Amino acid sequence: MSFLFRLAARSAWNRRLTLALMMLAIALSSAMLLGIERVRHEVRASFSQSVSGTDLVVGARTSPIQLMLYAIFRIGGATNNMGWDSAQKLAKNPAVAWTIPLSLGDSHRGFPVLATNGDYFRHFHYGDGQALQLAQGQAFNDIFDTVLGAEVAQRLHYKLGDHIVLSHGMGGMHLTDHADKPFVITGILARTGTPVDRTVHIGLDAMEAIHLDWQGGARIPGLSIKAELVKKFDLTPKTVTAVLVGLHNRAAVFGLQRDIADDTSEPLMAVLPGVALDELWQVVGIGENALLVVSGMVVIVGLAGLVSAILASLGERRRELAVLRSVGARPFDIFLLLALEGLAVMLAGVLLGVILLTLALCALAPMLSAQFGVTLHPSFPAVGELQLLLWTIIAGFVASLLPGLRAYRLSLADGLTPRL
Amino acid sequence: MKSITWIGGIVAAGLLVGYSLRLVATPAAAKPAALVAAMDATDSTPYKVGDHLQQSPDLVQSPYKPSNKSGDAFKEIAWESLIPKNWDAMAPFKGLKLDKMEDGDPRAVEALLKAKQYWKNAPIDPSMDGASVRIPGFVVSLEREGESLKEFLLVPYFGACIHVPPPPANQIIHVHSAKPVKDIRTMDAVWIDGVLKVERSDTMMGSAGYSMTSVKVEPYVDNSNQ
Q1: What is the distance between the alpha carbons of residues A184 and B129, in angstroms, rounded to a whole number?
Q2: For the segment B132-166, what is each residue's pLDDT rounded down to a tens digit?
Q3: Does B142 touch chain A (CB under 8 A)?
Q4: Do B140 and B75 share a structural domain?
Q5: Do B107 and B157 belong together in one domain?
């Protein structure tokens, strides 16, 4: 048996270029399959890590998924705001333990600006119930104070005490800046691995203040209210985008949800984050399955390439195999030789694929986390992924038995007789 | 001729590979059924809004009796056992002759509003504290750890959270799973084994309720007709 191994290895070394190409095809296709599976799981995990301990997300009526996307994940824009009086009424509800008002819409160099109050730093939790931690400085005290997420501070090289200018609306352009009212960075949050890292936090009163001289959707020419003077105005917010609600007793969530939906003073909607996420995965699941099917097809194409390459190589190896037969190798030995080679190429290819994927993840992870807010960790394949890989190897092995079977049936004379 | 056989073989192998990949990729537990389920993947749930899970009828009629040796065996109970035995659901309508009233009678409307409030604040049964029970219900996700569910609400009927008025406090169990459960989503039907705990709370709005640390969570299978 060990003799067969040596023989297979020597023979393979002789044809190393062809085999290396085959291995590369297998590696690329299995890396793709694994990569899609990995991204799918990481995206789900990172989404469900983004919020914890929040019982309801309340906002203007829209799709529950949409509300979650813009209020929690900062993806897309709000369709409508809710009145501040409704938010305050909610906070006074005896079943409610805490509320966090959120106001969105502005941006700073492409990063979303979130206006909130001190309750955000006290009550917002993420991951496994962790609270937000300030890496440097403190939460905002004065009106034009701002607290940055870790990613914002790192990418734009900001430090405490720096002045920044917010832009009206989303988008990275500096066309409509709130340049007359700069903000001071008073705090930088510790890294969380959630959308909080990409957020610039300001106070609700500051959000109101920078929009004082904006009426009817544009800055009024000639009207400019100086930053020092804004405190003379009423800075109570009129609207907020959404309110996060925590309850004393989580089982009371349906009752409050119904109360909010039935409230006749303002049409509002309350969403259970866990339920909305499950709904989101149901929608996304269709696309994910399509991706998996496509990557499955890529693997099949790779395997078909493997089989055809081995079959083609049988022609080249006719002499080699016939010589082996003539010195006493049984047809079954020839079969084993080819099966062994197929298995080895599959194993090496899949292993190479895992290494390729890990390298690619290491290289791309910072870009992905900055662009899409998805943190990918290069890690050992999980159980589900190992299962996928195992199936790929088995399928490849079975496919490589076909050329082996053909070689098994080739007669000795066929290989030794020169054909023209 | 031989080459055609080979091509056929390769195609067959490819199909085999594709099928097995599909089975692996489909997350459902039952492998052959997964293919059928995938056909109507968007709406594969067998339940309609308002559906209850089936339990044997004698269980519903005979209320839960606490056994002397607690803790070892999980006794199957019905959701009705969570309502105190002496609580009268029709109490708000007492003294009203409903059959003599017109539709939209202000007294009836008022009574209905009162009844809604009364049902919402339905009391819990303190004697259920510490009972080891086994109960079927639908899951409403609360907290996840990675992709596994570790905290959820269990409700007695399908669609409890969205489509119909919410169940009263005594028909909701707040479950902390002992170890995170995989592959469970909102409105999946499960069996749960665990020890009930009565949560008392001094806030108004009847926020007392049941909670449970589940020992075992398993997919619901209808065993009443087997």
Answers
A1: 54
A2: 888 888 888 888 877 788 888 888 887 655 566 67
A3: yes
A4: yes
A5: no
